[in-house]
Write a structure and sequence with these properties.
Length: 142
């Protein structure tokens, strides 16, 4: 039996479903993720965009990423919960706030990215792969 993955906001109005497992999992320390999540970093699971089915109304937050390319975060129009986003530099992938995944999702990051923008006091586990900016590989492509 195939497992499906569902990410949703706290009120459940905005949700996105995926038929396949994430292709990558990263901890992002960029300032944009800090701003959007309200946390010092974001745990992000990347899924193939063609495997998604989104429902609900969202507010889009448009930004330009450190790569110079556009990105868009999607927050619930009712409760303002951050659920997912797209980054033009990662064409074909959807980044999902891993804490919004249901049923409980075991987040297992491959690396920490944008550590050059890491919030003060955040400790990265010893031995974790770290990249000061974007990783030298495209998540899901190796």
């Amino acid at each position: 039996m195939n497992q499906t993955y569902r990410a949703q906001c706290p009120c459940g109005q905005l949700a996105v479903h995926f038929a396949e497992a994430p292709v990558a999992q990263l901890v992002c320390h960029c300032r944009d993720c800090q701003t959007v999540s309200g946390m010092p970093y974001s745990n992000v699971a990347f899924f193939k965009v063609e495997d998604q089915c989104a429902q609900g109304e969202f507010n889009a937050i448009n930004m330009t990423g450190g790569s110079g390319q556009a990105k868009q975060y999607r927050r619930c129009r009712q409760c303002d919960g951050f659920v997912y986003g797209t980054v033009d530099a990662l064409e074909g992938l959807v980044g999902v706030n891993a804490s919004s995944l249901k049923p409980p999702f075991e987040f297992s990051p491959m690396a920490h990215v944008w550590t050059s923008e890491k919030a003060a006091g955040v400790e990265i586990p010893a031995g974790a792969f770290q990249f000061p900016k974007a990783p030298p590989f495209r998540p899901g492509k190796g």
